[in-house]
Amino acid sequence: MCILAFTLLLLHVPLTVGSLAGTSCFSTMKHRAHMDGDVMIAGFFPLYTLGIDHSHSHASRQEENKMFIFKNYQCVLALTFAIEEINKNPDLLHNLTLGFDIYDVHFRAWTMFKNPFIFLFGKYKIPNYSCMRVSKSIAVITGPSGITSDQIGTLLGLYRFPQFTFGPFDHALSDHNKFPALYQMAAKDTSIATAIVSLLLHFSWSWAGLLTTQDENGAWVLVELKEEMAKNKICVAYELMISTQDASHIYKLMAVYNQINLSSASVLIIYGDNDSLIALMVFIEQIFMHDVDSDCVTWDNCAHDISLDLLPACTFDMTMSVDSYNIYNAVYTVAQALHEMLLHQTEVQTMGNRKGVLPSSVQLHTFLKNVQFYNPTGDQVIWGEKRKLEPEYDILNIWNFPEGLELKVKVGKFSPYDPHGNQLSLSEDMVEWAIGTTETPHSVCSESCGPGFRKSPQEGKAACCFDCTPCPENEIANGTDREKCLQCSDHQYANTQRTQCLLRAASFLAFGDPLGMALVVMGLCFCKLTAIILGIFWKHHDAAIVKANNRALSYILLISLIFCFLCSLLFLGRPNTVTCILQQITFGVVFTVAVSTVLAKTVTVILAFKATSPGRRMRWLLVSGAPNFIIPICTLIQVTLCGLWLGTSPPFVDTDEHSEPGHIIILCNKGSLTAFYCVLGYLGSLALASFTMAFLARNLPDTFNEAKFLTFSMLVFCSVWLTFLPVYHSAKGKAMVAVEIFSIFASSAGLLGCIFVPKCYTILLMSKRNSLHGFSDKRHKSRNKHS
């Protein structure tokens, strides 16, 4: 457990205690110290606290076994020093002298009023029974505990007796209706929560405990601190409150100390009045250092002329404290107001013997409200509405705490007047941590979630307690302790570590890709082969096998096949709106021409057989060229379907960001799937009709087996496209485009190979069969066989 050994103190405390240590030492300082003067200032300071019984002896349990608080004795020295300095100043108070009465305030609530009653009414007077004794006291200084000032202030307020409290600003004491005669020397510390949280943020402490006093001021600071911590995502590990001091107060600290040690937080924020803090620090010191403390531990063991410089720093701190400086200013404030009041009395009346007329404490309030002066250290002291409300804070580090000398070293400051983000300045190399610790203490409920992970809150626990969960696919966390993972945009993808979004590479089947180049070569080769076959048929247009089965239909089919091979090139390269439209429209129309041409050739074979059979009157259909009308009619229907497709929902350029990690696939979206499947279905219907008719006519007598070739070609065509559909829908990216191109090649090559390769073989290698005589002999034999 690392105890947070930082302290925030008010800035501008230029005095040193070296000068204070030279003032009078009061060997009889048990419950009261006194120095006579024309006008008196009373001080009520807690100078003793209970120790811890290590010996379990009867004497140690007695009230007399109290520990002297050397830190609070510095307040006595500050009051003494200020009064002696004022008495030596000839420009103040017109030869009036200040004196003091200093009383010890008991830590028990029921004895706290003992000395204040003695101060007001005398040792043997009964309050409110006889008149108040004649007193030369004009003001009271109380503190540092707000509780002490509160309870004493309730009594002093009845008599409008000016009261100055030198402890930390207490919001409970700022109620002027309840405390009409009370003045707080400390500035209103509205920035204390911001200052503490800034320190926590500087060291990345997000898990801290809170220890405050159980009073109104502690509750107010606790609320402010928790709100500021929540705004900066710092969680409270536990909350502890120290009750007002009583006889069992120190013993209750043992339970508090044990609860602190049980927590996983290694940072503890303590806020409270000095009495509570001193009791806590004494308790901790006695836990760790009860075998150490000094030869001079009580006033009874001190020589009358002992120097405070001889005391160890852990026993008596020679550095001027904020409380001492506030007492110093409080004394000067009273002196300045008293000086103004005396000047006013001189102006309104002539005093014969001024020493016989003492100023009234009630009259002092009028002059206190507008006091404004420079103290001997050069600091301006302003009272009233012009008073500075936002204090600056020193950040002190206690070196070698708790085993060392408790040397307070200024390591930084917090100024609310600096720009936001620059209010805290800290020399971290000057910070000394606990004994045996060289690194900055670590205080978090859960370790930070690194890049690629997000925080998942733990149910029922504080926000600082969480689990680290990896970011989902395509989401990143590029910093630590991210609440949510960020979704990468469509043109980006998350790396495997889920720490950054990378730009996706555009993916499409380009002409320059090896696969694209291979498909281009294949398409051009098929086009060239088709053109060669067309050239052969054109050269041998008078051959019987060319004339057979309608020579014009063969030319149309060959030309449409050339376009079928060429349309595959539209699927290569980066898609754009024009190519996306042409891909599907060209494919549908060109293949419709090809398939309808095959259908026309099949019909021609059937009509040719029927026309030569006896008793049939279908010759006129064959002679009139009726089969040739199949092509424009079928093509017109397909063109109409394509027109409706373009008019409703045409194809467009689209992207696919999910199929290939690290790539964004640029593809052509079909637009209306209904229109696409209508075009494809219509083409399939034509192919099925052609296959059915060719299959039925496969055994008809034919010299060149035209019906069988047409049947086999359509079988190949239908098989290719039936295989294409499932493979096409399961493929992604470039593979999907390649499948479509291969299907175009396979189906077109099937038509070319099955119908025209055998004819080219006959034309080039079997010229006798290609003659008219051979053609007539074969037809005659075939007719006799069927008859």
From TrEMBL:
<feature type="transmembrane region" description="Helical">
    <location>
        <begin position="552"/>
        <end position="573"/>
    </location>
</feature>
<feature type="transmembrane region" description="Helical">
    <location>
        <begin position="515"/>
        <end position="540"/>
    </location>
</feature>
<dbReference type="InterPro" id="IPR011500">
    <property type="entry name" value="GPCR_3_9-Cys_dom"/>
</dbReference>
<dbReference type="InterPro" id="IPR001828">
    <property type="entry name" value="ANF_lig-bd_rcpt"/>
</dbReference>
<dbReference type="GO" id="GO:0005886">
    <property type="term" value="C:plasma membrane"/>
</dbReference>
<comment type="similarity">
    <text>Belongs to the G-protein coupled receptor 3 family.</text>
</comment>
<keyword id="KW-0325">Glycoprotein</keyword>
<dbReference type="Pfam" id="PF07562">
    <property type="entry name" value="NCD3G"/>
</dbReference>
<keyword id="KW-0732">Signal</keyword>
<keyword id="KW-0812">Transmembrane</keyword>
<feature type="transmembrane region" description="Helical">
    <location>
        <begin position="674"/>
        <end position="697"/>
    </location>
</feature>
<feature type="transmembrane region" description="Helical">
    <location>
        <begin position="709"/>
        <end position="729"/>
    </location>
</feature>
<dbReference type="InterPro" id="IPR000068">
    <property type="entry name" value="GPCR_3_Ca_sens_rcpt-rel"/>
</dbReference>
<protein>
    <submittedName>
        <fullName>Vomeronasal type-2 receptor 116-like</fullName>
    </submittedName>
</protein>
<dbReference type="InterPro" id="IPR000337">
    <property type="entry name" value="GPCR_3"/>
</dbReference>
<feature type="transmembrane region" description="Helical">
    <location>
        <begin position="621"/>
        <end position="646"/>
    </location>
</feature>
<dbReference type="GO" id="GO:0004930">
    <property type="term" value="F:G protein-coupled receptor activity"/>
</dbReference>
<dbReference type="InterPro" id="IPR038550">
    <property type="entry name" value="GPCR_3_9-Cys_sf"/>
</dbReference>
<keyword id="KW-1003">Cell membrane</keyword>
<dbReference type="Pfam" id="PF00003">
    <property type="entry name" value="7tm_3"/>
</dbReference>
<dbReference type="InterPro" id="IPR028082">
    <property type="entry name" value="Peripla_BP_I"/>
</dbReference>
<keyword id="KW-1133">Transmembrane helix</keyword>
<keyword id="KW-0297">G-protein coupled receptor</keyword>
<dbReference type="InterPro" id="IPR004073">
    <property type="entry name" value="GPCR_3_vmron_rcpt_2"/>
</dbReference>
<feature type="signal peptide">
    <location>
        <begin position="1"/>
        <end position="18"/>
    </location>
</feature>
<dbReference type="Pfam" id="PF01094">
    <property type="entry name" value="ANF_receptor"/>
</dbReference>
<keyword id="KW-0675">Receptor</keyword>
<feature type="domain" description="G-protein coupled receptors family 3 profile">
    <location>
        <begin position="515"/>
        <end position="779"/>
    </location>
</feature>
<feature type="transmembrane region" description="Helical">
    <location>
        <begin position="585"/>
        <end position="609"/>
    </location>
</feature>
<feature type="transmembrane region" description="Helical">
    <location>
        <begin position="741"/>
        <end position="761"/>
    </location>
</feature>
<dbReference type="InterPro" id="IPR017978">
    <property type="entry name" value="GPCR_3_C"/>
</dbReference>
<keyword id="KW-0807">Transducer</keyword>
<keyword id="KW-0472">Membrane</keyword>
